[in-house]
Amino acid sequence: MQGTSLAGRSILIVEDERLIAPHLVKAFQQAGAIVLAPRSLDNATPLVEQDELSAAVVDFGLGAHNADALCLRLEQWNIPFVPHSGYSHRGSETRQRCHADLNCRRDVAHTLRFCAGK
Question: Residue 73 to residues 55, 56, 81: CA-CA distances in angstroms?
Fold first, then answer.
């Protein structure tokens, strides 16, 4: 992810897949981000209000739940977010308002650029 700097930016990453989460966290850390990486919606929601987040990367399919409530909370706090999912989530109301429409699992570099504001 050469050329993308997230130095000093706090990024919330909500991903429950054990094989994907470490890769995503590492990519953001290598770009200089301060990464908050809860693996559940219950643990992620309080972080929206407690930390000054620059952006969030959210897996929409977290177990039996979807991330609509978390994304609504991110919107209320004016925190940009991007979906990180291999699914289309056409039924998700948040999907209609999402800040970026991409399949991030295939393009971590694009996700880093989004969070860096580029």
Answer: 12, 11, 11
